[in-house]
């Protein structure tokens, strides 16, 4: 697992209070991890803060799973 | 109940009867530059020995989203519903059960923190939970979601009268048939740098007892110099009498009177003739079909401010007339401090427990009364006595007053 993926996983576990082994690449924040729409807004904010990237609202809407988040952040960082 | 004397109504009540004080030096934030360095803070711990452990009432992940006044309300409501053994499961029972919990101020700490965050990091860092975690009626909202209470969902904001107004209004909703059961009360978490600075600026807080916090709240005493800020929540379950009887519920007392009035005088000072408080008590007694002669015990507003205590005492004396000699009145704020929006609710509970146990709680630190009165102010030691009727007063900034009258229910 990449460094970004590990950090994303840690943030998701912290914010959603879920078991770490449930936070797989394919896990959907809303369908699998019990988040609501406000939780996802907060998650995106936490990613922005942690990785120093800006995630515009239209991009944020496409981030549905843990893998989506990792992919987006890695594309910004590279 | 969550109070500065413990988590739970019974533990708080026992400690009040023992004459304990909940006031301490504030240690969880910087007080060097504050005039007041003391407060009545909830004893925190692992939940044993009457301590309050927020994790017992709300998951840590959820606590991050809200201000503490909401967690206190959740804890107090959970205790009250458990004690009342009311767990509505049918759609009909859920629809007939509502919530009316108020707060005087709401989420001071979260607003202060977020304002700083906004200035330092900009609007994109403001949490989506900032608004729902700060709004006063979200105490009612959270409690309704947790217990599936789908009846009236309401809230009150009347400063230090909030808790009393919430209970009185909820009782009216039950009496008018809008609900069979109402979960009602007040909650407050005002103890932070902004809260203390604000009330210091109003010259409302005690400043002369920073080295002896347990002596600071001293209603009616000549050395009193302001109130001591408290925090916590008081919540009761109010139920239609027939509904409660039919299901064999534990009944503590009947709410027989509720009165409201406005001073129309000053934003923070009570009118010097005590007219607002007088008319408020008069209205509550009229509603109860009683006069002051029927009242055994009064739980006073008595905040320990130089101005307010004597004005209230004067209003009670005038209303009582000759009966003043037979009247007992104390201020439990001497023990738990002033819980602002929660005060009226915790004091309503203390009034009801005074009826149940036949004992008037003491006004601690009352060593030298500042005025002479025929009314027994219960200095320093609880007093065993038959109490059939108790009246509880709450007066708030803005000149907003509420009185509640409780009566013993014969088993």
Give structural notes.
The complex is a heterodimer of chains A (78) and B (411). By secondary structure, chain A is mainly alpha-helical. Chain A contains four helices and no strands. The longest helix of chain A has 15 residues, at 37-51. The radius of gyration of chain A is 11 Å and the shape is globular. The two termini of chain A are 17 Å apart. With 411 residues, chain B is an alpha/beta fold. Helix content of chain B is 33%, strand content 17%. Chain B has 13 helices and 15 strands. In chain B, the strands form five sheets. Chain B has a five-stranded mixed β-sheet. In chain B, strands 6-5-7-8 form a four-stranded mixed β-sheet, with helices on both faces. Classes of the chains: A mainly alpha (78), B alpha/beta (411).
- The low-confidence parts of chain B are none
Number of helices of chain A: 4
What does the overall shape of chain B look like?
Answer: globular
Mean pLDDT of chain A: 92
Structural class of chain B: alpha/beta
Fraction of helical residues of chain A? 55-70%
Helical fraction of chain B: 25-40%
Keywords:
heterodimer, A: 78 residues, mainly alpha, B: 411 residues, alpha/beta, 5-stranded mixed beta sheet, 4-stranded mixed beta sheet, globular
Question: How is the secondary structure organized here?
Answer:
The complex is a heterodimer of chains A (78) and B (411).
Chain A: H1 3-16, H2 37-51, H3 57-62, H4 66-77
Chain B: E1 2-3, E2 6-7, H1 9-17, E3 23-25, E4 38-40, H2 60-63, H3 68-84, H4 91-95, E5 97-102, H5 108-121, H6 138-147, E6 153-154, H7 162-175, E7 181-188, H8 193-201, E8 232-239, H9 241-246, E9 254-262, H10 275-288, E10 297-299, H11 308-320, E11 328-330, H12 333-336, H13 343-357, E12 359-360, E13 383-384, E14 389-396, E15 400-407
Parallel strand pairs in B: 5-6, 5-7, 10-11, 10-14
Antiparallel strand pairs in B: 1-2, 3-4, 7-8, 9-15, 12-13, 14-15
Helix pairs in contact in B: 3-6, 7-13, 10-11
